[in-house]
Amino acid sequence: MRKALAILAVYGALASYLAAAEPVARHTVIDTREAMVAGINSAAVAIWDISSEARGEEGELDPTRMTDDSWSQLRDEAQSLESWARMMAEADTIHAAGPDLASCEVSEGVASRAEIQAMIDARPEMFRASARDLAERAGLLVAAARARDAAAAGHRAAEIDVPCQGCHTRYWYNQNPPQVEKSQD
Ligand code: HEC
Question: Is residue 137 part of a domain?
Fold first, then answer.
C-alpha cells in the first residue's frame, strides 16, 4: 500500500511538472548570428558549391554532372535551409547577436548588435516576411531536387540569394543614421 501511494505521488509530480513546462517550451528564441552561421549560410554555401560544380557551358545545371549523391545532398541542404529560415520567420523573439568581435573581423558597413536589434524591432514583420520568402524558395529547391529536375534546380539554387541580399540591406548593414534614429522612436 505504501509503495502504491509513493508511485502515485511520483506520477502526480511528473504530471504537474509536464503541465507547468509546456507553455515555457512553446516560446522560441532565435539568435540571428547563430541562425546564419550554423544554419542558413552553411546550407546556402553547400547548395551553391554543389550547383556550381555541375554547371554546364551556359550556366545551366547539367544533369549529366549530377550524381545520386549530389542530388540527395542538394535536397538535404535545401531542407535544412528551409527549416532554419522558417524558424527565423516564426520565432517569438528575434535576438540580434551582432558581429563576432572576438575574431576582430567586423566588415566595414556592418551595424552593431544594438543597431541590428533596433532595425529588427522597428520592422519585425518585414524581417519575418523576408525569412518566409527564403523558406519558400528553399522549399521549391527541395521539390526540384526530389524530382531531379535540373533546369528548375539550377534556377532555384541561383535565386535563393535574393532574400539574403534584401534582408541584409535592411537589417545588417549600416543604414543612414537619421533613418535608424527615426525608426527607434
Ligand atoms: C530575414 C533576414 C535575413 C535573411 C533572409 C538572411 N540573413 Fe544573413 N544575416 C541577417 C542578419 C540580421 C545578420 C547579422 C546577424 C548578427 O550579427 O547578429 C546576418 C548575417 C549574416 C552573415 C554573417 C555571419 C557572421 O559571421 O557574423 C552571413 C554569412 C549571412 N548572414 C549569410 C546569409 C545567406 C547566405 C543568406 C541567404 C541564403 C542570408 N544570410 C539570409 C539576416 C538575414
Answer: yes
Please state the atom number of ligand 1 nearest to the C-alpha of residue 133. Answer: 5
Pocket test for ligand 1, best of 83, 94, 130, 168 (most atoms within 8 A of CB): 168
**CATH number for the domain harbouring residue 62:** 1.20.120.10
Helix/strand/coil for 55:
strand
- Would you give per-residue pLDDT tens digits along the chain (185 residues)? 555 555 555 555 555 555 555 555 679 999 999 999 999 999 999 999 999 999 999 889 999 999 999 999 999 999 999 999 999 999 999 999 887 666 656 677 888 899 999 999 999 999 999 999 999 999 999 999 999 999 999 999 999 999 999 999 999 998 865 444 444 44
Show the domain range for 57: 27-184
Determine, yes or no, domain membership for 154.
yes
| Cβ-contact 168, 111 below 8 angstroms | no
CA dihedral 159, 96, 172, 180 (to 10 degrees): 130
How far apart, in whole angstroms, are the C-alpha atoms of residue 166 and residue 176? 16
Q: Whose CA is nearest to atom 29 of ligand 1?
A: 41
- Residue 10 forms part of a structural domain: no
Task: Dig out the grid coordinates for 82 from the structure.
Answer: 528551409
- Is position 22 within any domain? no
The pTM (predicted TM-score) of the whole model is 0.83
The total domain count for the chain is: 1
